[in-house]
């Protein structure tokens, strides 16, 4: 008896999978999603959504953003980011005005349990089949693509099932079976960060326009401590660091985070009446610090499975959704031309993906390396405090890659030094 067959199978159902599914449906491509958990389910995250998230949702269906920004109980509009240097001085960087469309905020914060469920609710339709509580146990090559075996945990006997596809989209994270099987555990050692997250009530001193905050503490460089405001007076509090550095220096990241909350002179007063509302959770962050393989014969990798987290801000939701959208476009072309070979998929997905976001990731990695030198970060922020023109230049760097490339040039720092 033949196994059921789909043109496309997606493993995972986070933002990358949601982006792929939305645009596969728009193209009329029938597809299957296999998700190991059941919704709603939590995902440890910083809970910040950039302008790229809004871009993909707008392209998928403008009504999605209408729904998000009308729901103030669950989604909080955000208009920028605060960067606090190791010396405690901070500068406000508004998100670029070019990111504001139809008067809407350029970004927002939302708990991942809520946002992922929101995305999940938009995936139902005639072209989409979703199987929850499906643990994928095998990915094997077949004559026309892949045979995927999964354990159906929703059935009483947990029976093993098999399905076939012409194209497989891996969207199950950096430690998922897709990466292990399709890229032979091709993990980039220096791309790994580790993060901790907790939810708090009663944190004070938030920016009036709900800017997200990145505090580059000397003990955490090249990582940072963050404060992300959420609806109803809540906040996502966390810290992220290079995992190799954590191991090498035997750093207790939980203790470092709690020490910042209780002792840092620029932070502690904001937690005087705050209380933690759940546990402190940890997770890995596969940073996009190197161009990596994201496709091959009959498969595409997206989101964390493709190591696409921004190396400087740590934001991964926008790139996950964006990579899912591009994967769907490549899948539609592959099905149209009946081409699933590595060269075709590299041309229509891998090359396109890194042409669109590759320079952004490279420059963010440059910025991450820059903050390894606290004296230099302090110097730039001190100068920015005294120079509105420099503040505008730094703000422009987050919207204009040519401006951000200035960070690589010694002449940029010489001009700051000489007040030019």
TrEMBL record:
<dbReference type="GO" id="GO:0016628">
    <property type="term" value="F:oxidoreductase activity, acting on the CH-CH group of donors, NAD or NADP as acceptor"/>
</dbReference>
<dbReference type="GO" id="GO:0071949">
    <property type="term" value="F:FAD binding"/>
</dbReference>
<protein>
    <submittedName>
        <fullName>Geranylgeranyl reductase family protein</fullName>
    </submittedName>
</protein>
<dbReference type="InterPro" id="IPR011777">
    <property type="entry name" value="Geranylgeranyl_Rdtase_fam"/>
</dbReference>
<dbReference type="InterPro" id="IPR050407">
    <property type="entry name" value="Geranylgeranyl_reductase"/>
</dbReference>
<dbReference type="Pfam" id="PF01494">
    <property type="entry name" value="FAD_binding_3"/>
</dbReference>
<dbReference type="InterPro" id="IPR036188">
    <property type="entry name" value="FAD/NAD-bd_sf"/>
</dbReference>
<dbReference type="InterPro" id="IPR002938">
    <property type="entry name" value="FAD-bd"/>
</dbReference>
<feature type="domain" description="FAD-binding">
    <location>
        <begin position="6"/>
        <end position="321"/>
    </location>
</feature>
């Amino acid at each position: 008896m033949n196994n059921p067959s789909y043109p496309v199978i997606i493993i995972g159902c986070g933002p990358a999978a949601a982006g792929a599914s939305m645009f596969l449906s728009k193209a009329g491509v029938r597809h299957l999603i296999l998700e190991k958990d059941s919704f709603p389910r939590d995902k440890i995250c910083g809970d910040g959504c950039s302008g790229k998230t809004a871009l993909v949702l707008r392209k998928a269906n403008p009504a999605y953003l209408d729904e998000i920004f009308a729901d103030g109980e669950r989604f909080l509009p955000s208009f920028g980011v605060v960067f606090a240097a190791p010396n405690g001085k901070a500068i406000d960087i508004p998100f670029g005005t070019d990111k504001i469309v139809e008067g809407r905020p350029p970004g927002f914060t939302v708990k991942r349990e809520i946002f992922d469920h929101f995305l999940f609710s938009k995936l139902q339709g005639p072209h989409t089949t979703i199987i929850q509580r499906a643990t994928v146990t095998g990915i094997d090559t077949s004559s026309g693509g892949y045979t995927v075996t999964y354990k159906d945990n929703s059935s009483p006997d947990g029976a093993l099932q098999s399905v076939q596809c012409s194209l497989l989209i891996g969207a199950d994270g950096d430690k998922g079976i897709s990466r292990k099987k399709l890229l032979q555990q091709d993990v980039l050692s220096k791309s790994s960060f580790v993060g901790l997250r907790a939810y708090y009530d009663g944190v004070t001193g938030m920016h009036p326009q709900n800017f997200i905050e990145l505090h580059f503490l000397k003990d955490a460089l090249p990582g940072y401590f963050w404060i992300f405001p959420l609806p109803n007076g809540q906040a996502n509090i966390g810290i992220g660091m290079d995992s190799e550095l954590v191991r090498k220096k035997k750093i207790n990241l939980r203790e470092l985070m709690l020490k910042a909350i209780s002792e840092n002179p620029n932070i502690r007063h904001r937690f005087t009446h705050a209380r933690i509302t759940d546990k402190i959770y940890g997770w890995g962050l596969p940073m996009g610090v190197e161009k990596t393989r994201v496709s091959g014969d009959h498969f595409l990798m997206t989101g964390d499975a493709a190591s696409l987290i921004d190396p400087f801000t740590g934001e991964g939701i926008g790139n996950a959704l964006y990579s899912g959208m591009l994967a769907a476009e490549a899948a539609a072309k592959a099905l149209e031309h009946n081409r699933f070979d590595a060269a075709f998929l590299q041309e229509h997905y891998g090359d396109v993906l890194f042409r669109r976001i590759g320079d952004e990731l490279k420059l963010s990695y440059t910025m991450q390396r820059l903050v390894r030198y606290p004296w230099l970060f302090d110097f730039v922020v001190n100068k920015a405090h005294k120079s509105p023109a420099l503040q505008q230049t730094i703000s422009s760097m987050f919207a204009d890659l040519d401006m951000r490339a200035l960070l690589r040039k010694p002449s940029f720092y010489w001009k700051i030094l000489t007040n030019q």
